[in-house]
Design brief:
The protein has 14 helices and 23 strands. It has about 425 residues and is of the alpha+beta class. The chain folds into two domains: about 210 residues, UDP-n-acetylglucosamine1-carboxyvinyl-transferase, Chain (Alpha-beta prism), CATH 3.65.10.10; about 200 residues, Enolpyruvate transferase domain (UDP-n-acetylglucosamine1-carboxyvinyl-transferase, Chain, Alpha-beta prism).
Length: about 425
């Protein structure tokens, strides 16, 4: 167990470059099971969830070679179809190994996947879709998947689940005939996975939309692909710099059209950015004033499936709102336990009224004071870290390894921007 020690009220300023997208690279690692040829990924983040996924793949017999941010995988000889239960408990993305194992290798024994406890996270959409494609699924203490006759199908996802879309996409590329996925997730990281599959020889239409059409092929081949930048990390660093009144230049921020989904909400909190020579600039001296709705009504910030505001940034946006002048209602629609972390912010002096498990009202600006905090999940952990950075006095954020699951060398990179943060343990 490790922890971060933070002395707050220091501006974060400087230049920052985002690492590869956590939510894109995890399904890409799983996609290496779809071919016996090498798959090379560049810009792979050095985070704990990637370590666990690589360990799961190695346990199946996949050859893994890593050099810096470059990972090469070769699934030429799969020795096992049963996933390690201890490793599966550590990462939600273990579910992404189900489809490629069953589709190409015939079967998969999947222990219940773990990950952050932020509310109920259904598997029904995954399994109903795989059954439609010809993969039998049996439940119990673990899930057993067996490929029967893999055929294309028309399937309507009952929720626009990112990981379910990714699983079904990886099965459909090897299914005989055509598959149409309706109400598919269209997040940038889903599109990035699709781009890798196309490089491997898959035939996919509609990437970036909620209707995907896949013409199955008999085999896929190896490929090399660069993972796109992590938009959630970009939003987290922007919030940290804005909350501490700093100035930040983001180099290679990725597709600015995708970032507009995030920047629009930040603008409602009085945080403006400028596109400049391919970079994204957060100027100093932000107003940080909440923009009211017409008629001076209190605005509402809500999340939802892409292109709505990402649920993974709700916690960060709430912390930023504590440093903005005005009142705003946050409505978390995706997960019923994500808002519980606000109790810690209230302990630090935040003016927050919890309405119910899904809604909180934040009034700012608030003078936060440092205290000892526990990390409930990756995104709430990063949010508490940001709160400690703009708080007065000494703050301690325990369970630093939870934040390490989604943010690469976060203490070193914040320190390079001027934060007073050290890791202990």
């Amino acid at each position: 167990m490790s922890r971060f020690i933070i002395h707050g009220q220091r501006k974060l300023s400087g230049e920052y470059r985002p690492v590869g997208n956590k939510n894109a690279v995890l399904p890409m690692l799983a996609a290496a099971l779809l071919t016996d040829e090498p798959v090379t990924l560049r810009n792979v983040p050095d985070i704990r969830d990637v370590e666990v996924m690589l360990a799961l793949l190695e346990g199946l017999g996949v050859e893994v070679a890593r050099e810096g941010d470059r990972v090469t995988l070769r699934a030429g000889s799969i020795r096992r179809r049963r996933l390690d239960p201890d490793l599966c408990r550590r990462v939600r993305a273990s579910i992404l190994l189900a489809a490629p194992l069953a589709a190409r290798h015939g079967s998969c024994v999947l222990p219940p996947p773990g990950g952050d406890i932020i509310g109920r996270r259904r598997l029904d959409t995954h399994f109903n879709g795989l059954r439609a494609l010809g993969i039998a699924v049996e439940g119990g203490a673990h899930y057993t998947l067996r490929r029967r006759q893999l055929r294309g199908a028309d399937f309507l996802l009952d929720e626009a689940s990112v990981t379910a879309t990714e699983n079904l996409l990886m099965a459909a590329v090897l299914a005989e005939g055509e598959t149409t996925l309706f109400n598919a997730a269209c997040e940038p990281h889903v599109t990035d996975l699709g781009a890798l599959l196309v490089r491997m020889g898959a035939r996919i239409e509609g990437l970036g939309t909620n209707c995907l059409r896949i013409q199955g092929v008999k085999t896929l081949h190896g490929a090399e692909h660069a993972v796109g930048p992590d938009l959630i990390e970009v939003g987290s660093f922007l919030a940290a710099a804005a909350a501490t009144r700093g100035e930040l230049r983001i180099t290679a921020p990725g597709n600015l059209r995708d970032l507009a989904v995030i920047l629009r909400v930040f603008a409602r909190l009085g945080v403006e950015t400028i596109a400049e020579a391919g970079d994204l600039l957060l100027p100093a001296r932000q107003k940080r004033r909440v923009q009211r709705d017409l008629g001076r009504a209190i605005p509402k910030i809500e999340d939802g499936p892409w292109p709505q505001f990402p649920s993974d940034l709700m916690s960060v946006a709430i912390v930023l709102a504590t440093q903005a002048k005005g009142t705003v209602l946050f409505f978390e629609k995706m997960f019923e336990s994500r808002m519980y972390f606000v109790d810690r912010l209230i302990e630090m002096g935040a003016d927050i009224i919890p309405c119910d498990p899904h809604r909180v009202v934040v009034s700012g600006p608030c003078r936060l004071h440092g205290t000892r905090l526990a990390t409930p999940d990756i995104r709430a952990g990063m949010s508490l870290l940001i709160a400690a950075l703009c708080a007065k006095g000494r703050g301690v954020v325990d369970q630093a390894e939870v934040i390490d699951r989604g943010y690469e060398r976060i203490d070193e990179r914040l320190r390079a921007l001027g934060a007073d943060i050290v890791r202990e343990g």
